[in-house]
Specification:
mainly alpha; Formate dehydrogenase/DMSO reductase fold; Cytochrome Bc1 Complex, Chain D, domain 2; six-stranded mixed sheet; 21 helices; globular
Length: 642
């Protein structure tokens, strides 16, 4: 609570000081009457800065250690946050000094310097918030500065304008009108910058429309947008008044009251922004709470309706998107008829909007599907080979009886159930969010047949099961992975790489260059070991000459000279990748005798080779695949895309 309050009470004085410095310049007014207020606000901002750094230090320094002067000094000089605060506080102190110097030295240059320092103070306000995160791209960090500067100039100018209107009623009306019109232009520029930079920030910090409702950050941002819309309505009223006012007249009282309403909404917005600046961004949240019983999805509605005709499912026919779409089409036609048909024109002002609203509701309904509190939850466990293997074990202990060992819904108990268990390898799995699956595993399926496993499996165990299910759902298509690159859809699970000398410690850390992931079991019998070793050596030579990364997961007595980068837990990696190492008409195995997966620059498995021989042309084909994938653009892939 303290941090947001300090940020708010730190920002408002600085914004008001800058506003009262800027407004008189718009009409060439000396602004002498504002000097005490400007200096007082600047001094207050500088003083509050010292309290802010103490509060920041208290939130970061371990609770058992007191925040005394020694600890605070160490924090300020030894951390990025502290050094950023030193820079911002130095500017704030210079700003306060410049406003005090204006009492003894009247010079336009000094006024310019004070205004410039005030603008720097406003821009630097964001530096002690999310803008200090150096993981952001430079343009995102710049957007924080621009957003804060433009927003606080707008808020400070509004507060200053209201102050001017209520204390300057002895001024000529045309002077007030001139100030209002010129400020309106400045405000429009500031708002434009706020909107553009705000969209850039939201792109990084929100991550998706659902997060606006599913996270604390998103809900506060939604409130901030509501306050912004309220202030814009007041601004629109002021703009309309300036365009329509009688010449030579200006209503100080009305303009001040409406401007005060805009300023009040803007100050409320600023208070919310102070909270947003000190909480976890929505895109970084993993525990999301979705408050609605539905969500919008094309994949789960129109994208799926072709697999089953609406009238073939008696229990759910009325929820089918086709029926909602038909209702929308009928009411849209009625709305058009009510507006244009002569016999209905007398009713068109009521009937057409009403029918149009029902049509829009029908369109929205046709894209809705069931949702749960966990629908947009992000996994708390990374999508790794180790997690997949743990999930496979939990699945075998809790789910095989109904869903079957391969997840295709034919377990021993399946025939006795009134609702058949879901085929977890079928395409429909991709129509659900990961959070939906987590909810069903936790609390049971919608049919009431599948029980919940919240008490049997803790949260991380349930996410392990989901990581296994993600791999399992790929198995049907994975059978047909060949030597020709397929479309990117199969995401390669991550795993740790061994070797203290390696800077890259995970498989996904190799992205940016195609990677050959080779599996082999040497000395297992049943194969010509000399041929296998020759195959592995040819794979290594081809990967090296093609410029690809090479990772080996070799079991048994494979020669050390064939090893490249190796997995820390090879059995787990083999177990995870064996799930998708399927071939038509072959019995699945948890062991990979030999297989070579080609993973593209972005982390998708794109091709697979079974064996290499000198004269079979497979090595040349591998080199061609690597060359092709090296030319493709790099895209950022979520490990949990599904």
């Amino acid at each position: 609570m303290l941090m947001p309050l300090l940020r708010f009470f730190e920002s408002v004085p600085a914004a008001l000081a800058v506003g009262l410095l800027l407004l008189p310049r718009l009409i060439d007014e000396p602004g002498e009457r504002f000097k005490p207020v400007v200096a007082g606000m600047a001094l207050l901002r500088a003083a509050l800065g010292f309290f802010l750094i103490a509060a920041i230090a208290r939130t970061i320094i371990p609770a058992e250690r007191p925040v005394d002067l020694a600890a605070l000094g160490e924090f300020v000089t030894g951390t990025t946050v502290g050094r950023a605060w030193i820079a911002t506080q130095a500017v704030a102190v210079l700003f306060a000094a410049a406003t005090l110097l204006r009492f003894v030295l009247a010079a336009k240059l000094l006024d310019d310097v004070a205004l410039a320092l005030g603008a720097l103070v406003l821009a630097a306000t964001s530096v002690t918030g999310h803008a200090i995160d150096d993981s952001f791209a430079w343009y995102t960090q710049a957007s924080f500065l621009v957003h804060t500067l433009a927003g606080l100039v707008w808020i400070g100018g509004l507060l200053g304008l209201v102050w001017w209107m209520f204390t300057g009623r002895d001024k000529p009306q045309e002077v007030a009108a001139k100030l209002a019109e010129r400020w309106s232009l400045v405000a429009k520029i500031a708002i434009l910058l706020v909107v553009i930079s705000g969209l850039m920030m939201a792109w990084e910090n929100v991550g998706g429309f659902a997060n606006l409702l599913a996270t604390t950050y998103g809900r506060l941002l939604t409130l901030k947008l509501a306050l912004f819309c309220g202030s814009m309505l007041a601004a629109l009223a002021l703009a309309l008044y300036l365009n329509c006012r009688p010449a030579g007249q200006f209503d100080f009282a009305w303009y001040g009251k409406v401007g005060g309403g805009e300023a009040a909404a803007a100050v409320g917005l600023l208070f919310v922004a102070g909270w947003i600046a000190v909480i976890t961004p929505a895109s970084h949240e993993t525990d999301l709470y979705w408050p609605l019983p539905f969500r919008f999805s094309y994949a789960a509605t129109w994208g799926y309706v072709g697999l089953k005709l609406p009238w073939t499912d008696v229990a759910g026919w009325y929820l089918a998107p086709a029926w909602s779409g038909l209702v929308a089409l009928l009411f849209a036609g009625f709305a058009a008829a009510a507006w244009w048909a002569p016999p209905l024109r007398s009713w068109r002002r009521i009937a057409a909007p009403a029918a149009g609203a029902v049509a829009l509701l029908g369109v929205a309904s046709s894209f809705t599907t069931l949702a749960y509190t966990d629908t947009y939850n992000d996994p708390a466990v990374d999508y790794t080979a180790e997690s997949v293997v743990r999930g496979q074990k939990d699945f075998a202990e809790n789910c095989v009886a109904c869903h079957g060992a391969n997840g295709d819904g034919n377990g021993e108990l399946a025939k006795g159930l009134k609702v058949a268990p879901a085929d977890l390898t079928a395409p429909h799995v991709g129509n659900h969010t990961i959070g939906d699956i987590f909810h069903w595993i936790s609390y049971g399926g919608t049919s009431g047949v599948m029980p919940g496993f919240k008490d049997a499996l803790d949260g991380d165990d349930r996410w392990d099961v989901i990581n296994f299910l993600l791999m399992l759902s790929y198995t049907n298509q994975a059978r047909f992975i060949g030597t020709t690159p397929m479309v990117p859809w199969l995401i390669a699970p991550d795993f740790q790489l061994a070797g203290a000398q390696e800077k890259v410690t995970t498989f996904w850390g190799l992205r940016g260059v195609p990677t050959l992931l080779s599996f082999a079991r040497c000395g297992a019998g049943g194969v010509d070991e000399a041929e296998r070793e020759a195959s592995l050596e040819l794979a290594a030579q081809t990967a090296k000459s093609a410029g690809a990364n090479h990772v080996t997961v070799y079991q048994g007595g494979c020669p050390d000279k064939l090893l490249a980068r190796v997995a820390t837990h090879p059995l787990a990696v083999e177990g995870a990748y064996s799930i998708v190492n399927r071939y038509p008409n072959e019995t699945p195995s948890k062991e990979i005798g030999e297989a070579h997966f080609v993973v593209d620059r972005s982390g998708y498995v794109r091709a697979r080779f079974r064996h290499f021989a000198k004269d079979d042309g497979q090595a040349a084909r591998l080199a061609g695949v690597v060359a092709q994938l090296a030319k493709e653009p790099f895209v950022v892939v979520s490990l949990h895309s599904h």
